[in-house]
TrEMBL record:
Keywords: ATP-binding, Kinase, Nucleotide-binding, Serine/threonine-protein kinase, Transferase. This is non-specific serine/threonine protein kinase. The lineage of its organism: Eukaryota, Fungi, Dikarya, Basidiomycota, Agaricomycotina. Coiled coil: none annotated. It catalyses: L-threonyl-[protein] + ATP = O-phospho-L-threonyl-[protein] + ADP + H(+); L-seryl-[protein] + ATP = O-phospho-L-seryl-[protein] + ADP + H(+). GO terms for molecular function: ATP binding; phosphatidylinositol-4-phosphate phosphatase activity; protein serine/threonine kinase activity.
Length: 1141
C-alpha cells in the first residue's frame, strides 16, 4: 500500500514515517465497524432483495461502503482467481460510520432499535477539502442512515423478537455542484460556485445513481435564502430544473428563517410539505408470520445544508420520528392517536442515539461534534446548547484551518484516492512540509500569533494590519500534501487571490506555500479557466493538453481535434487511465501477443491478440487502472464465469458469447485488469439494414429466432439470469471460420498507423511535489483502430439508425453498428465491423427506466408500426425530437428510398388503415446511400445494391446442422438474477415489456421473451413493433407505449396494470389510460396482412408464434423453454429466399 522505492533502504525513512502516521491517525477515528456474519454495508431491504446465495460478505458488500476495499484489492484479485476459495476468508468488509443498538419495551412489545450510518468512500475527505460533486456523480460527505426496528409479539420477552422487522433509510450528501470554500483563516471562506460545461452532467449522474439505488428522490435543501449561501441555493435550483428528472422532487425549506428565535418546533412545516411523498415512498416491512415482504421502501428523502451536518441532523431526526410513529401504527403497536413522545424511556434512547449519530458524522467531516444537538437530545432549543455550539464553532475553525491537511491525506491514502507512481514517494520529498521555514518551524498557532504581532507592530493602522493578515492567511493553512494540485485547483475560483509580500514581513509571508507555483501569481481572473482545464484533462475532453501544465514544465504537443477525434485522449494515459500498449507487446508471461488495435472505449482499449498456447486469435480488453473501473471489471468477470460454468452441455450455451480468460497485468505505473473474449462479427442490426426493403427472409429469421430462444433458455433455466436488454444490437453474428478471416486480413491489410503524443500531467503531479523528469517528459503512442473486415463484401454500417447502449453512453462512441459483445460503448473504428466480444464494463450506470432518461438515444426518425402517420411521413414529434440532437451527431440520409406503399397509420391515428397491394419494390428503390456524417462520412463505404450478394437458404435446415448463420447473445453486463434484481429500470424503449413500463418489481425471465418477440418482428419487417412518441404535455412515451400495446394485443387484467410504481400515472382507477382516451384496435394478424402483405395463413402461423410471447400479462406469457420447439420455427416448408448477408 505504501509505494516506497525498493532501491532506497535506510533506517530512517521520513516518507514511511509520514505515511504510517497518516494511517494510524485515520484508524484512530473510532468509526470503523465490522461483522463476521452480518453485512453491515447493505441496508435490510437490499439484503432481502439479494441474499447472496451463499457468497462471502466481501462478494456482496455495497461498493460505496466497503471502506477498506482499496487496502484489500490485491486479496480480492487473488480470491477471484482462486478456485479453492482459500483467500476469501481473509477479506472482510469494514464500514466507516456509526452503529448503535438498544433494547426497550413499548405497549408490551419488546423492541430492539438500531441506528446505522454508512459513509461513502467515494470523494471522502474533510470539510473544506472535499466539497460538491465530481464528474462521476460522487458527492462529498455522502451518508446513508438506516433506522432498523425488530419488534416482538405482545407480552414476549426482549429475547423473543420474531415478529416484525422494519427499516427506514434516509441519505445526505453535499450539494451536487462544483463548488468550494477556500479556507484562508476567515471564519466564512469565500464561496465559489463553478458553472462548468460538465455541471449538469455531473448532477444528472449523481441523481440517476440515487434513483437507481433507492428509487424516487425528495431533495430537501436547507441552505439560507440570502447572504453567503444564496448563490448556492440559486445554482442548485437552476441545475435541478435543467436536469429535470421525473423521479426527483425538489423541496426548499429555509431552516434558519423558519426556526429562528429557537422556534425549532416549526420543523413540522417541512414534514407537512413532504408527508405525501413519505407515505408513498413508505418503508421496508418484513413479518415472520407472512411468507412475503409486506412493504418495500420505494424512495428516500435526501437532505442537505452546506456541510450536511447540523441542520441536516435536525431535519433527519424529525423525519425519522415521523416515520417511526407511522410504522408502529401500521403494525398495530400504536393506535392512530398514539405517539412515541409519550414513552419517555424510548424517547430517551431515540433522541440520544440520533444526537450521537450526528456527533459522529460531524467529527468525521468537520473535526468536532454537531451543533444544535440539544434540540435532538431534548426536543427543544436551550441556551446552554447555544453556548456549547459557540465553543464547537471555534474548535471547527481551528481544526479546519490547522489540522485538516494531514486528515485529508489520511483519507486519500486509505481509500486509494492517491495513487503515486512506483518510487514517487522516495523520489519527490513528498513528506516534507512546503510552507515557509519559519512558519513550519513552530506550532501553527504560534506562527500565526507571531505574524499577527509583527503585522500589528509594523503597520500603523489596525485596518491595514487586519487586511494584511487576511491577505496572507492562506500561508498558515494546513494543506494536504498528497494531492496538492487537486486541492488548489479544485477549491479555488476566480475570486481567490494568492498571498502577497508585505513590507517588512517578507520573511513571514513572502515564501508562501509551494502550491502557489501551480497557480502562477495566485488564482486571478484566469482561475476558472484553469479549473475547467483541469476538469477536462481528468475527463479526457481537453482540447489542448498543455493547458494545465506547470509554467516551468516541458512543452506538451497539443493533439488537434482533426487528428485525434476518433481515438482515445492522451490525457487518459495518466495514472488511473489506460495502459500504453504497443504492437508485439506480450501479456500473461508471453502467452498473448498484440497484433493490432481493434478499438477503444471510455473504460478500456481492445486489441487483437495471438494466443500462443492455443495458436488462435482472441480479443483482449485492457481496462483502465482506476479503482472504479477495476471493481466493475471484477464484478463482470464473476458474472461471466458463472455463465460459462453453469452447464456447458446445454444446447443454448453455444449461442452465448464466450469468455476465455482474465488476469491482472502489472504495468510500469499501475495494475490493469484484462479480459479475453472470442472475436465476433457484426450485430443483427446490420443484417436488418441490408434487408430493409422487405425484411430478412423467414427461413433465416426462424434460424435466428430458435438460436436466440435456446440462448435465453440457457440463461434463464441454467443461470437464473434475466438478460434485460435483448435487442438487435446485442445479438452478434458469429463467424464460423474466424481464424482464416483474421489471417487473411492480417496478411493483406496495411500496417497500423500511430502518432506519438505528449501526455499532459495528471492532476496530482505538481503543486509542491517535484516530479521526476522521466514522468514529466512522457509521451504515448496512440494507434489507429483497425476493426477486422467483415467476410461479406456487402457488410455495411447500421450506424445510420442507432448505436447507443440503453438510454445513453456519455463518453463513448458507437460506430458501424457493432459492439463489443457485452459492452454498451462499442468500439471506435473506421472499418466495417468484426469486433471482439466483451463485457458491459463500458456502459454507464444508467439503464433506461420506465421514465426515459433526459439524455436521448440519437437516431434518425424511426419507422415503426406505431410511428408512421397516414401519409407515410414521420410524425411531427419525431421531427421536433430530431431538432434537439446536437448537429455533430445528427445522421441524415443523403439518399434513402424504400418501397413506396401506403402504410397504415399510427395506432393512435383516427383514420382507418389504407392498404395498397401488389407493389413490388425495384432494385433502385432498395438502394440506400448512407449519410455524410462527422462520425461516419470518412469511415463507411457506400452500400452496394441488394443484388450483389445473394444467399439461398437450403430447405429442411435444422438449427444444429451447418447453418447459414449463427448468433451469439452478448452484452451480459445488465443481466440480473430473476429474484434479486440489481435494478428495476430495464430494457431499451422499443423492446420494453409492459411490466417494466409501469414499474412493477416482480418481473422475471419473461421480460426477455417479450423483447425477443419484438426483435423477431423487426427482422421480418425491418421496422420496430413499438416506437412510442411523446406529445408535449398531452401524453408521455409511456402513455403512448401502453396505448400501442393495447391497440395491438388487446386489454389485460386490472391487477397487472395497478401493481407498478407508475401505474397511477398511466392508468386511472378503472384501468383505462389516463391521458389517451381514444384507441383504434389493429390486431397483429390484421397488421401483417394489411400492412406487410402476408397471406392469411402466414399471418396466422406467425401470430401463433409471437402472441404467446407478447402477452401483456407477464404471468401468462410463454417462457423461452415453451417456444424453442414451436411449429413456426420448423423450416421444412420454407422456400429458398434471397438475403443480403
Amino acid at each position: 500500500m505504501l509505494p516506497m522505492n525498493p532501491d532506497v533502504i535506510v533506517e530512517y525513512n521520513p516518507a514511511e514515517i509520514y505515511l504510517m502516521g497518516l494511517l494510524k491517525k485515520h484508524l484512530d477515528d473510532g468509526l470503523f465497524w465490522f461483522s463476521y456474519t452480518w453485512d453491515l454495508t447493505r441496508r435490510l431491504q437490499a439484503q432481502w432483495s439479494d441474499s447472496g446465495d451463499g457468497k462471502a460478505l466481501w462478494e456482496v458488500a455495497d461498493d460505496r461502503f466497503f471502506w477498506n476495499k482499496f487496502l484489500q484489492s490485491r486479496f480480492i484479485d487473488a480470491a477471484i482467481a482462486d478456485p479453492e476459495g482459500k483467500i476469501g476468508p481473509f477479506i472482510l468488509p469494514v464500514l466507516y460510520g456509526t452503529f448503535d443498538i438498544r433494547s426497550t419495551v413499548i405497549n408490551s412489545h419488546a423492541m430492539r432499535f438500531c441506528l446505522i450510518s454508512r459513509r461513502s468512500r467515494h470523494r471522502a475527505g474533510t470539510r473544506y477539502f472535499r466539497r460538491g460533486v465530481d464528474h462521476e456523480g460522487h458527492v462529498a460527505n455522502f451518508n446513508e442512515t438506516e433506522q432498523v426496528m425488530l419488534v416482538g409479539r405482545a407480552g414476549k420477552s426482549t429475547g423473543d423478537l420474531c415478529g416484525a422487522r422494519l427499516s427506514f433509510v434516509q441519505i445526505r450528501g453535499s450539494i451536487p455542484l462544483y463548488w468550494a470554500e477556500v479556507n484562508n483563516l476567515r471564519y466564512k471562506p469565500e464561496l465559489q460556485v463553478m458553472e462548468l460545461p460538465d455541471s449538469e452532467n455531473a448532477m444528472r449522474a449523481h441523481l440517476q445513481e440515487l434513483v437507481k439505488i433507492y428509487g424516487d428522490q425528495d431533495m430537501v435543501n436547507l441552505v439560507n435564502h440570502k447572504g453567503h449561501e444564496l448563490p448556492m441555493k440559486e445554482a442548485y435550483e437552476k441545475y435541478i430544473a435543467q436536469v429535470n428528472l421525473p423521479r426527483v422532487r425538489y423541496e426548499y425549506f429555509d431552516f434558519h428563517t423558519e426556526c429562528k428565535n429557537m422556534r425549532w418546533d416549526r420543523i413540522n412545516l417541512l414534514l407537512e410539505s413532504i408527508e405525501e411523498d413519505m407515505l408513498r415512498n413508505g418503508y421496508f416491512y418484513e413479518d415472520a408470520d407472512r411468507p412475503e415482504i409486506v412493504k418495500q421502501q420505494l424512495g428516500v428523502v435526501r437532505t442537505n445544508c452546506m456541510d450536511n451536518l447540523d441542520r441536516t441532523n435536525v431535519a433527519q431526526s424529525a423525519v425519522a420520528k415521523w416515520m417511526l410513529n407511522r410504522q408502529l401504527r401500521d403494525i398495530g403497536v400504536f393506535q392512530e392517536h398514539e405517539s412515541v413522545d409519550t414513552y419517555d424511556d424510548f424517547m430517551f434512547h431515540f433522541r440520544n442515539m440520533w444526537a450521537d449519530h450526528g456527533d459522529y458524522i460531524s467529527k468525521a467531516y468537520s473535526g468536532t461534534g454537531a451543533l444544535k444537538t440539544d434540540f435532538t437530545r431534548t426536543g427543544k432549543r436551550l441556551y446552554m446548547g447555544a453556548l456549547a455550539d459557540g465553543v464547537n464553532s471555534i474548535m471547527r475553525y481551528l481544526k479546519n484551518n490547522y489540522f485538516d491537511g494531514p486528515r485529508q491525506d489520511g483519507f486519500d491514502l486509505f481509500t486509494g484516492s492517491w495513487t503515486p507512481r512506483p518510487g514517487a514517494v522516495a523520489a519527490s520529498g513528498l513528506w516534507l512540509d512546503t510552507r515557509p521555514l519559519l512558519i513550519r518551524s513552530m506550532p501553527p498557532l504560534a506562527s500565526l500569533a507571531l505574524f499577527m504581532i509583527c503585522a500589528g507592530l509594523t503597520l500603523p493602522r489596525t485596518s491595514a494590519a487586519l487586511a494584511l493578515i487576511a491577505a496572507h492567511g492562506i500561508s498558515y493553512v494546513s494543506w494536504p500534501r498528497l494531492n496538492p494540485l487537486t486541492d488548489i485547483i479544485e477549491y479555488s475560483g476566480p475570486g481567490f487571490k494568492g498571498p502577497r509580500k508585505g513590507r517588512g514581513l517578507g520573511f513571514l509571508a513572502g515564501a508562501v506555500h509551494k502550491a502557489k507555483s501551480v497557480t502562477g501569481a495566485g488564482m486571478n481572473a484566469s482561475a476558472k479557466q484553469k479549473w475547467v482545464a483541469a476538469q477536462e484533462v481528468e475527463m479526457g475532453t481537453a482540447k489542448s493538453t498543455s493547458t494545465s501544465s506547470p509554467p516551468s514544465g516541458p512543452k506538451i504537443v497539443p493533439v488537434h481535434d482533426a487528428e485525434n477525434k476518433d481515438e482515445e485522449s492522451a490525457a487518459d494515459y495518466n495514472t488511473g487511465g489506460y495502459l500504453a500498449v504497443k504492437l508485439k507487446d506480450t501479456f500473461r508471461n508471453g502467452r498473448y501477443v498484440v497484433q493490432r488495435k481493434l478499438g477503444w472505449g471510455h473504460f478500456s482499449t481492445v486489441w487483437l491478440i495471438k494466443d500462443n498456447d492455443l495458436n488462435k486469435h482472441s480479443a483482449l480488453k485492457v481496462v483502465k487502472s482506476a479503482g472504479r473501473y477495476a471493481e466493475t471489471a471484477r464484478d463482470e468477470i464473476r458474472l461471466l464465469r458463472a455463465v460459462m460454468a453453469a452447464n456447458p452441455q446445454h444446447p443454448g450455451r453455444d449461442f452465448i458469447v464466450s469468455f476465455f480468460d482474465s488476469f491482472t497485468h502489472t504495468g510500469p505505473e499501475d495494475s490493469h485488469i484484462c479480459i479475453v473474449f472470442e472475436p465476433l462479427g457484426e450485430n443483427l442490426l446490420a443484417l436488418i439494414e441490408r434487408n430493409k426493403s422487405k425484411g430478412v427472409p423467414r427461413s433465416l429469421v426462424k434460424t435466428i429466432s430458435k438460436q436466440i430462444l435456446l440462448g435465453l433458455q440457457y440463461l434463464h433455466d441454467e443461470c437464473d439470469l434475466v438478460h434485460t436488454d435483448i435487442k438487435p444490437e446485442n445479438i452478434m453474428i458469429s463467424i464460423l471460420d474466424v481464424e482464416s478471416l483474421i489471417l487473411s486480413e492480417l496478411s493483406t491489410s496495411s500496417s497500423p498507423t500511430s502518432r506519438r503524443v505528449g501526455v499532459p500531467p495528471g492532476k496530482s503531479r505538481a503543486g509542491g511535489v517535484v516530479i521526476p523528469r522521466k514522468y514529466r517528459d512522457r509521451h504515448v503512442q496512440i494507434f489507429d483502430s483497425q476493426p477486422l473486415q467483415s467476410p461479406s463484401p456487402t457488410s455495411i454500417s447500421p450506424g445510420s439508425r442507432r448505436g447507443l447502449h440503453m438510454s445513453q453512453i456519455t463518453s463513448s462512441k458507437s460506430v458501424n453498428g457493432s459492439s463489443l459483445a457485452g459492452t454498451g460503448e462499442g468500439l471506435v473504428g473506421s472499418a466495417p465491423p468484426l469486433l471482439s466480444a466483451n463485457s458491459s464494463l463500458e456502459s454507464d450506470t444508467g439503464s433506461t427506466g420506465s421514465t426515459d432518461s433526459p439524455s436521448p438515444v440519437y437516431t434518425t426518425p424511426p419507422t415503426s408500426l406505431g410511428s408512421i402517420m397516414s401519409n407515410g411521413k414521420p410524425s411531427n414529434d419525431a421531427k421536433s425530437a430530431e431538432k434537439t440532437i446536437p448537429s455533430a451527431l445528427v445522421i441524415t440520409p443523403k439518399e434513402a428510398t424504400i418501397p413506396k406503399q401506403n402504410i397504415g397509420p399510427s395506432l393512435l391515428a383516427q383514420t382507418a388503415p389504407i392498404v395498397v397491394r401488389g407493389h413490388t419494390p425495384t432494385k433502385s428503390e432498395a438502394t440506400v446511400h448512407y449519410p455524410e456524417s462527422p462520425l461516419l462520412a470518412d469511415a463507411l463505404p457506400p452500400t452496394p445494391p441488394q443484388s450483389d450478394v445473394l444467399f439461398s437458404s437450403p430447405p429442411h435446415l435444422d438449427v444444429f446442422s451447418p447453418s447459414p448463420i449463427q448468433i451469439k447473445i452478448a452484452d451480459l453486463g445488465n443481466a440480473t438474477p430473476s429474484r434479486a434484481h440489481f435494478t428495476e429500470d430495464i430494457q431499451t424503449r422499443q423492446y420494453r415489456a409492459p411490466e417494466a413500463i409501469f414499474g412493477r418489481s416482480d418481473w422475471d425471465h419473461t421480460a426477455d421473451v417479450w423483447s425477443t418477440a419484438c426483435v423477431v418482428f423487426e427482422l421480418l419487417t425491418a421496422e420496430y413493433l413499438f416506437d412510442p412518441q411523446a406529445q408535449g404535455a398531452l401524453f408521455s412515451k409511456d402513455d403512448d407505449h401502453m396505448a400501442q400495446i393495447i391497440e395491438l394485443l388487446g386489454d389485460f387484467p386490472l391487477d397487472v396494470k395497478m401493481g407498478g410504481r407508475y401505474s397511477r400515472e398511466i392508468f386511472d382507477s378503472t384501468g383505462a389510460l389516463r391521458y389517451i382516451k381514444t384507441l383504434k384496435p389493429w390486431p397483429l394478424k390484421r397488421v401483417m396482412v394489411e400492412k406487410y402483405l402476408f397471406t392469411k395463413k402466414d399471418a396466422e402461423n406467425l401470430c401463433g408464434f409471437l402472441e404467446p410471447m407478447l402477452r401483456a400479462d407477464f404471468r401468462a406469457r410463454a417462457r423461452a423453454s415453451d417456444m424453442v420447439d414451436h411449429p413456426w420455427l420448423d423450416l421444412q416448408d420454407e422456400a429458398e429466399d434471397d438475403v443480403c448477408l
